[in-house]
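dude i think i finally got it to work??
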Amino acid sequence: MAVSEQIKIINISVSELARLYGSSPQAFSQKMKREKFTPAELKEIAKAAGCEYESSFILPTGDRVTD
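look at this
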């Protein structure tokens, strides 16, 4: 699932989430269209929405490599 689709599922309007994140709705929407979020930005977006964002690689041994 694309990151922009995941963000839409958070159940906050894109405009409101942009404001909580500290961005203009227009700039935020453009980033969503381009799918150009860094892991650090996704963590900040999640924090603004009252969520957590987790990204990691799960190795065949079951170990996780996170940022």
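The chain has a mean pLDDT of 92.
im so relieved honestly
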